Protein 1
Amino acid sequence: MSNKIRLGILGGGGDSLIGVLHRVASSMFDRYEIVGGVFNPNYPDNVAFAKKLGLNESRIYVDFETMIVEESKLDKDERIEVVSVLTPNFLHYPMAKQLLENNFNVICEKPLTTTYKEALDLKKIQEEKNLVFAVTYTYTGYPMVRQMTKMISNGSIGKIQKVDAQYLQGWLNPVIHEKEKRNSTWRLDPKKSGISCCVGDIGTHAFNMVELVTGMKVKSVLADLNTLYDDNPMDIDANILIRFSTNAKGTIRSSQIATGEENNLRINVYGEKGALKWEQENPNYLYHLTDDAPMQVLKSGHSYNDEISLDGTKLPPGHPEGIFDSMGNIYKGVARAIRKETFQDAEFPSIDDGVRGMDFIEKTVESNSKGNIWIELNN
Ligand SMILES: NC(=O)c1ccc[n+]([C@@H]2O[C@H](COP(=O)([O-])OP(=O)(O)OC[C@H]3O[C@@H](n4cnc5c(N)ncnc54)[C@H](O)[C@@H]3O)[C@@H](O)[C@H]2O)c1
């Protein structure tokens, strides 16, 4: 009998942005088999898409509540073991909560929920149930992000003194200037997105990246957010100052109206002995800077990289790997955790990362609405 992990999917239908990334990622290391789910709230569309994937119609459900009830009736070696939640943000919490309560492991898209309170509630249930829970901060799976994290924790650049992170996109520019378009985009609807658009959607990726690679927690934030139009309640641009509990300080700049930008996530970490720089649109390279030597360019797949970085590459150096591979590495880490064969710590972003992300979003919005003041995060 196959030892593949039985995966269910909520959302991520043929009309979605992120569905294909999860499906490809789950198939990458032959660890999962997609067996069912609810890809779309419209049942005929749901079934049509599932058929296209070659799935058995009997495991395609009308909604997530029915999926949980019906799957729970199946034998343990038949029922779905882990569910990927790929719907718009407001559905993450009710779906993940019921999944955990009914003993399913969860892979959830970011932002984890729409409020910090909901995030804490999920963490409580996850701990009680002792289930695997990943939050797909996708970029953390890149081999050179893993290498950067290892080099910083090994002291390669010394004590950190400055962090500069940016995540610039331009996709909202053609949307935001037309009232009808901005009123029909779910990411700009607080009921579907939560209290923030730009910070919740992409600033949170940059924040997670900052805390991951530095190994340090952000202590406080001061944010200046922009909505551009008075009838738009959601931030679409954010300039955020950050402070750590050490003397280190930094910035997180994120925008969805940075005209012409695509997916320009970058993180630069400057230490006493050197600096490391990485950029998502050129992800197989890591730049190492020092005061007195030419810049070194480290590349993925070479034996000088750490074991956890090498575990994230599948082909010899020179074969570019990208976002699908990065998500594939997250799925690989989750598969190991479900099968209790963990290779190294922090192979995938956890529920704690998701909770931190929600605290960051709320504190950023609070800082802005109170007149751009410093606000402390919970620690
Ligand atoms: N990790 C990343 O880098 C990344 C990138 C993009 C999106 N996301 C996140 O993924 C989530 C989805 O984003 P998207 O851009 O794919 O959205 P989308 O609007 O493109 O797709 C949403 C999908 O969910 C389905 N859906 C909606 N309601 C549903 C319901 N009740 N039951 C089942 N399916 C339902 C829709 O039919 C659609 O297929 C969001 O939370 C977003 O923040 C993450």
Note: The chain has two domains: 5-138, 142-315+356-369.
Protein 2
Amino acid sequence: MSEKVRVGFIGCGGIAGSHLTGLAHMEDVQLTAFCDISAETAERRAAEYGGQAFTDLQTMLDTVELDAIYLCLPPFAHGEAEFAAIERGIPFFVEKPVGLDPDLMKEIASRAQAANLLTCAGYMNRYRNGIGRAREILQSDPLIMAHGGWVGGPPNGSVPIHHWWVVKGKSGGQFHEQTTHTVDLVRYLGGEVVEVYAYGARGFNRKAMAALPQYDMEDATVVNLKLESGAVATLYSSCAAAAGGGGVILNLFAQEHTILFTGWEHTGRFLTAGSPEIIEIRGERDIFAIEDRAFINAVKTGDRNLVRSSYADGVRTALVTLAANRSLETGQPVAVKW
Ligand SMILES: NC(=O)c1ccc[n+]([C@@H]2O[C@H](COP(=O)([O-])OP(=O)(O)OC[C@H]3O[C@@H](n4cnc5c(N)ncnc54)[C@H](O)[C@@H]3O)[C@@H](O)[C@H]2O)c1
């Protein structure tokens, strides 16, 4: 590896920008190449951060030497990029959710494992101090029940992501695409999910349907989850609350501890039985930079313990949210199986 970690991006839209802001300030990172099916998007990133722009990922990989690749692709666009990275032995970071097709994701995970490749799934909340503290607490005082989710306003087409996000066949729906963060935290803090049962509401989101005629997903979803440990959770999504008042929530209840996370930053309040004290751990605003630092350090040192969610771990979270989608379709509880 060269002195600097040479990083390439495949998919250079919104979330790529969040990673680039932090990576651009890391002295040991060289932003080397940008690939996007939109030439204008790739060229804009190259103009801003240096490096070369490409519209074809194989051409990019044939042209430049890379030590790490960020895959910042919509859920429906995975496969070719992961296989190319594995074939060339280049560690990759992939944004959540890591895909839409269980068989494809399992194949990627198995080939990455066979190649013994360092991978990272973009579940940045795992790097928060408050989440780390909650994990420590719940290891000795196990989770009994959790509830939480993401409630936001109607998508209106003001940002590019909205255009594919509202098409269920492209994003997987809000629960799969966004509440995946909360599902992932329940797994990280409470252990594996073995069964889900979902209900969905449709047809209410007039504002989203008017702004984006392709809108065809649930306006709201409520999902019950059964964990391997015997604990239970209810997680929900809605993107129809134009008046606000929703946000990001994860409340966790154990015998001796209650842990309440609120907001995108996941600021945590920690309550302990028998103690009047409530401890607050504020969520980090620069969490993408923290996550990126961990991944880059892992690439440099080979220390995989620095990465808190591998690609395969990301697949496990996706299998839960896709099981919820199957439950919506069938009206039945669905077992979550690898
Ligand atoms: N971690 C987070 O909190 C977070 C936040 C936002 C988005 N995301 C995730 O990041 C992913 C991308 O979202 P986004 O907001 O950047 O979307 P976006 O629509 O803004 O950008 C996606 C980009 O990928 C490009 N693209 C599509 N197919 C491609 C292909 N085959 N090859 C190369 N480029 C291709 C598009 O042209 C676009 O520029 C999604 O999975 C989303 O869930 C994660």
Note: Residues 10-16, 35-38, 41, 72-75, 77, 95-97, 122, 124, 160-161, 177 surround nicotinamide-adenine-dinucleotide (CB under 6 Å).
